[in-house]
Amino acid sequence: MTHPKVSIIVPTRNSSRTLSACLDSISGQTYKNIELIVVDRSSSDETKKIAKKYTNSVYDKGPERCAQRNYGVAKSMGDFVAIIDSDMNLSPTVIEECIAAISLPDSVGVIIPEESFGEGFWAQCKKLERSFYVGVDYMEAARFFRKKDFNAVGGYDESMVSGEDWDLSQRIESHTHRVLRRTRAFIFHDEGHISLIKTIRKKFYYAQKFAAYTRKNTTHSNTDKQTGIAGRYWLFLSHPRKLFRNPIIGIGMLFMKTCEFGFGGVGYMIASLRS
């Protein structure tokens, strides 16, 4: 097939602020054989109304995003699936490049690098942080797969709320003994207005859910790299020109990550004691 169908799955939850831009970016792809599926989770805002302007395939599913993603794939008709969050905007050539990348020998999935944007000082810190992860295989996860490979490993693990992207990519690689490729085109992740308190609370919440990932992937070679605090700081500090190009943003990012690691560690320990 020269132009196989690609099903793009977008899970939503009160996503009205970002959804139009996300779906516009999907509509504007240079690759045109695309099926759009939106899977909502009991939104109380205008999310569904916005989604229905772009596609008739709007469904309801919960309780979390893994179940939404799996449900969307089950409803899809494409040979390939792309999992895109509702606060992401795709560069115009993303899907075209994904098809080219997965067509290469031994390809099983495609990583689409991300760049953050948002409002305020802490959003600039988050943008800087995410820039260090581009091209670092153990920190990035694939979002584009053959549907048959996705189904062969059972899709996303619905017991996970954190680390599920890494888990799926690693299972598909292990199952097929093939490799992940990557695009040059970026996804732009709309962080909105970030406050320090907001990002700490988010990290605390997801850290409490992260034990499910670490228990399942204890022996995987990536787990220590993904969870190791010293390694993360080394990733930042080994590029001092980049880190301190704007010294205020660089110091702010390090402070933000220290707060996240601290509160995340507390959340993880609380969850471990409860289990």
Q: Which term fits the overall shape? A: globular
Helix proportion range: 40-55%
Our Rg estimate from Cα atoms comes to: 18 Å
Structural class: alpha/beta
Low-confidence parts: none
User: In percent terms, what proportion of residues is strand?
Assistant: 15-25%
- CATH-defined superfamily of the domain at 6-193: Spore Coat Polysaccharide Biosynthesis Protein SpsA, Chain A
- How many strands appear in the DSSP assignment? 10
Q: The CATH topology of the domain at 6-193 is what?
A: Spore Coat Polysaccharide Biosynthesis Protein SpsA, Chain A
Quaternary state of this entry equals single chain
What is the average of the pLDDT values? 95
Structural overview:
The chain is an alpha/beta fold and 275 residues long. The protein contains 13 helices and ten strands. It has a domain at 6-193: Spore Coat Polysaccharide Biosynthesis Protein SpsA, Chain A (Alpha-Beta Complex), CATH 3.90.550.10. It has helices spanning 19-27, 47-51, 65-75, 94-102, 121-131, 147-152, 164-176, 196-209, 211-216, 223-227, 229-237, 240-243, 247-274; strands at 6-12, 34-40, 58-60, 80-83, 88-90, 107-111, 114-119, 142-146, 179-182, 187-193. The protein has a seven-stranded mixed sheet, with helices on both faces. Strands 5-10-7 form a three-stranded mixed sheet. The chain is globular and about 45 Å long. The termini are far apart. The model has no long low-confidence stretch (mean pLDDT 95).
